[in-house]
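In the design runs reported in the main text, the only information available to the sequence generator was the tokenized backbone. The following block is the verbatim input for one such run; it is reproduced so that readers can re-run the procedure and compare outputs position by position.
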């Protein structure tokens, strides 16, 4: 782990199956599975349902492996932050060594099986995604630069590209548009969280933008990235993966998202603290629905095309 002085809380381990599942970050995994599935179904080539199911399952396992490796490495700072203190390792429910072993085993299994069920390019991209999240983001960027979320967001943006490659065996502009949607969404999503989590990142000595540049600068960054995201999201409606239903959804959602970002950028810190960061929390909750809605509409548009569900 990053902090050699950190040790898992002493005592008798009473590890339950659910504790190992929690190591896999199931909420993050659900987003990975959904966006990868949309990437697969939006692709122009057909995929046999059994192959599609198996491939998405192995992508999910790879996402879980990344989560376990991240929790192993970040156990020292997770123990300090209120939001993460109850995770399996800092709470003493799972030994750190077991989390590492689980992460490594699932990483190898997921990549190998995706190569067999789909193709080598998809498996290679999955391997790179796991490496990017566990090593480049968790071990390097997260503790070294306030751009940790900006650059590290690429790890969460790869799943729809993997899904597309599973179906087609190649990259395309459409796949990278889906990548860009997640990549540009990630910073305002996490910066809103950082604004109302107060001192968590300060206490853990994580160089989040709120810590290194201040909360005023973070609010400005939220509006800048949201403007760029809005242009990208609405513009995607005029591409091959867009359409009238996607475009209508994107216009409404991005108008709401942009209004929320403007409200955040205008907030006085004392006023925000006095009302319990209601505006920031509302923006964060909307951001959770934002991505699911956009990718859901990409899926709807794919279903309405003549080939139907990825050509099934």
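Verbatim output:
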């Amino acid at each position: 782990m990053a902090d050699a002085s950190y040790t898992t809380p002493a005592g008798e381990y009473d590890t339950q199956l659910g504790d190992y599942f929690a190591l896999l970050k199931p909420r993050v995994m659900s987003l990975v599975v959904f966006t990868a599935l949309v990437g697969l179904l939006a692709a122009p080539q057909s995929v046999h349902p059994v192959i599609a199911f198996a491939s998405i399952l192995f992508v999910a396992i790879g996402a879980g492996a990344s989560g376990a490796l991240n929790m192993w490495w970040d156990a020292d700072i997770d123990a300090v932050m209120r939001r993460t203190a109850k995770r399996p390792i800092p709470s003493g429910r799972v030994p750190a060594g077991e989390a590492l072993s689980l992460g490594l085993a699932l990483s190898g299994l997921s990549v190998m099986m995706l190569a067999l069920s789909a193709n080598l390019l998809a498996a290679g991209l999955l391997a790179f995604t796991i490496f990017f999240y566990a090593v480049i983001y968790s071990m390097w960027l997260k503790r070294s630069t306030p751009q940790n979320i900006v650059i590290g967001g690429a790890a969460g943006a790869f799943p729809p590209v993997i899904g597309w490659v599973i179906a087609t065996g190649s990259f395309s502009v459409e796949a990278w548009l889906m990548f860009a949607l997640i990549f540009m969404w990630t910073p305002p999503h996490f910066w809103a969280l950082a604004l109302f989590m107060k001192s968590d990142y300060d206490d853990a000595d994580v160089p989040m933008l709120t810590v290194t540049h201040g909360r005023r600068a973070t609010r400005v960054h939220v509006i800048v990235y949201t403007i760029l995201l809005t242009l990208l999201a609405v513009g995607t409606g005029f591409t091959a993966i867009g359409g009238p239903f996607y475009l209508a959804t994107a216009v409404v959602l991005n108008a709401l998202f942009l209004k929320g970002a403007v409200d955040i950028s205008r907030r006085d810190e004392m006023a925000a603290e006095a009302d319990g960061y209601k505006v920031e929390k509302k923006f964060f909750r909307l951001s959770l629905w934002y991505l699911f809605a956009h990718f859901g509409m990409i899926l709807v548009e794919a279903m309405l095309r003549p080939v139907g569900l990825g050509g099934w």
